[in-house]
């Protein structure tokens, strides 16, 4: 509610994007709580749970499945959109920002609204996103297209526009763009490739020739691209705002970025070169994870440092800013 009020007051696209993302996250949370209730108590009260399922032409078990899937997909991407908007807002508090950044944020905002509508309908009713470009068992899910082209592409464009500005803390600005690019390649480009080759990858089914690759990708895109990369991006934001030791903050940011890039390389090797359990892919990804852990430790050190931050530069928040 505060984000929407602020967006109306200042008319800035990053605030509107954050507000729409927060709304999507809220609705996702509601679906998650309803799913949690059904998991705990089943079709109780039957007049409400079973009644709504019957009204939407499905069983209460299928309603539960749809709620869980819609909740999970909507929540994680809404949080990513919120992180992107926060990055752009953190550097452009008193400026309009680069036109490419504004374009990307509007694109993201529209994508978030579309994604929210798709997942609320898919979670609460029998209607599910169609499979597009279908051929055999291959095809791209309609909701994946909305998320990939709408939200994640828009976020990538926005952060490239942010990185291109003449503003301080280049490492963090460009780092946010690099993290989003790796997220886009992993989730959207490789994901679409695997979906479009379902007969070859078999959606992880062991009879397909490249099923191990699909099984590895299931971990790779979720645990790395949708969980770890947003967490690293959030830590970069925290370092930008609160690190007291500028030099340690820079080293921590570079280490976090290096670790993420090495894990990304390990994932690419897993998917396209060798899905062996303890092969070269595993070694590269493990080195990347070690670097990331070191970066987290350095980040904590920078936040707890005793040094004084440099004087606020252009685009930095004013003293006492809490928005």
Q: Layout of helices and strands, plus pairs?
A:
Elements: H1 2-10, H2 13-41, H3 49-55, H4 60-91, H5 99-124, E1 131-135, E2 138-141, H6 142-163, H7 170-196, H8 198-201, H9 211-242, H10 246-272, H11 280-303
Antiparallel strand pairs: 1-2
Helix pairs in contact: 1-2, 2-4, 2-5, 4-5, 4-6, 4-9, 5-6, 6-7, 7-9, 7-10, 9-10, 9-11, 10-11
The total beta strand count reads 2
Report the mean per-residue pLDDT as an integer. 89
Rg for CA atoms? 21 Å
Give the low-pLDDT segments: 311-323
Order of SSEs? HHHHHEEHHHHHH
Q: How much of the residues is beta strand, in percent?
A: under 5%
Query: How many angstroms separate the termini?
Result: 13 Å
Strand order of the biggest β-sheet = 1-2
